[in-house]
Amino acid sequence: MRYLVLTLALSLVACSNSGKIESDDTGETAGTDGGADDGGSSTDEGGTDEGGTDDTGATDDTGTAGGDDTGTADDCEAEVDSTWPEDGDDAFYYRDEISFYLSEPDASATITVDGISGTSSLDDTATVVTFTPDGDLDGASSYTATLSYCAGAETISFSTSDLGGEVDVDSLPGLTYALNLGTGTVVNPPGLEDLLGLFGADLEQTLFLQVTESSDTTINFISALPDDTGDQDYCNATLDFPTADFTEAPYFQIGPKDIIADIGDTQVPIERVYVSGTFASDGTYIGGMELSGTLDLDVIGPALGVDGETICNYGSFVGIYCEECGDGDETCLSLEIVDMDAEGEETSLDRIEMDDCHVDCPASAKNPDCTL
After folding, report:
1. pLDDT, tens digit (0-9, with 9 covering 90-100), for 36-66
2. Each residue of 71-109: pLDDT tens digit?
3. Could you give the maximum distance between any two Cα atoms of the chain, in Å?
4. How do 244-245 and 218-224 pair as beta strands?
5. Is 255 left (phi over 0), alpha (psi -120 to 50) or beta?
6. What is the mean pLDDT of the chain?
7. Which domain holds residue 358?
């Protein structure tokens, strides 16, 4: 793995002589019995310390130590920078976690949500506090989350979207949805869109997803790419995702499956893809969608006029580090895109078994393996 490391070191050294016992030149120990010695006086009746020194230079140690860290609001420097969801959000995804983002570390910070059991946790920096519910929140419901931390308490109120309600599984087969990757948020690797932009590429890719079968326990999808007009591209074979569990309906996760995406006007594979989301109760859209997979920059590179290693080198300057691909090359990136919706389309996909083999694909005439 390639790393460009910029390290900033900040050292804070605190020294204390509190509790140090020294002997004067008479052999008597100063400040250990609360009484007066030859070099100074100390009074323990009122618990005060005159702070005097004896003629040997020893300082008595019965005074009150300063600067202790009690974690009170007076010495708390942490503030809430942001929250997820934002206060007043009325479309929070019912499967999401709740987070508070702090300006400074606070190991004491915890989150509770009224009426909901769950676990509060801190990240390694002690600046991100997260509440993970034990189960899904209810759809179209209101909640209050409270952060308790060194400065006191801060509360946000929010409501979930209508996702999470019961869906008629028998109504789903035949429904088609358009998922545009460019509408989501790339959380891994951060900065990927900027990196691709350096080479004139983007993630403005739409995938068609169609339900072919569904029941109370399983669901099946096929996927296809659109052509330039936005209709199905009949020159590309459709892809069948493996049968997926649907016992958590309306939520599903399908995959893994290698798919094709257009990046830089060239079709490139995204390997080991998983897609998840939640059907709206009326089946009109799928919300809370996420996609994860692996990009091999050695495959993408030629379409952008460079090799994968060059893209990786550029990436290291913006904190993107390539990973081992499984073949010994370190030119792969783990991809994760979240916060997407797939809108329903009034169309039905044709199942296509091979590339360039469909009556509406002009290239089919030049495919010797295609029989129509």
Report:
1. 344 444 344 444 444 444 444 444 444 334 4
2. 456 789 999 999 999 999 999 999 999 999 999 999 999
3. 112
4. antiparallel
5. left
6. 82
7. 169-363
Q: Are the C-beta atoms of residues 341 and 286 closer than 8 Å to each other?
A: yes
Asked if the model's pLDDT at residue 27 lies above 60, the reply is no
149, part of any domain? yes
- Measure CA of the first residue to CA of the last residue in the chain; give whole Å: 48
At position 58, the amino acid (one-letter code) is A
Q: Are residues 288 and 324 in the same domain?
A: yes
Q: Kindly state whether residues 155 and 203 are assigned to the same domain.
A: no
Long-range pairs, 60-69, Cβ under 8 A, ≥24: 60/30, 60/31, 61/18, 61/19, 61/20, 61/21, 61/31, 61/32, 62/31, 62/34, 65/16, 65/18
277/350 same-domain check: yes
Q: How many domains, in total, are found in the chain?
A: 2
153 and 190, same structural domain? no
Task: Give the CA count within 13 Å in the CB-facing half-sphere of 336.
Answer: 5
Structure-block tokens of residue 291? 């996609």
131, part of any domain: yes
Whether residue 44 is contained in a domain is answered as: no
Mark whether 207 and 107 lie in a shared domain: no
Task: Tell me which DSSP letter residue 211 carries.
Answer: E
DSSP 335: E
Q: Is residue 21 part of a domain?
A: no
Structure tokens of 144? Answer: 């209050």
Q: Of 253, 284, 274, 277, whose CA–CA distance to 168 is shortest?
A: 284
Residue 77: both structure tokens together: 């420097």
Q: 224-262, pLDDT tens digit by residue?
A: 999 989 999 999 999 999 999 999 999 999 999 999 877
pTM of the model: 0.71
Residue type, 234: Y
Residue 72 corresponds to which amino acid?
T
The model's pLDDT over 206-222, given as tens digits with 9 standing for 90+, comes to 999 999 999 999 999 99
Contact 329, 294 (CB under 8 A): no
Choose one of 159, 192, 208: the last residue of a domain.
159
Domain check: are 221 and 239 in the same one? yes
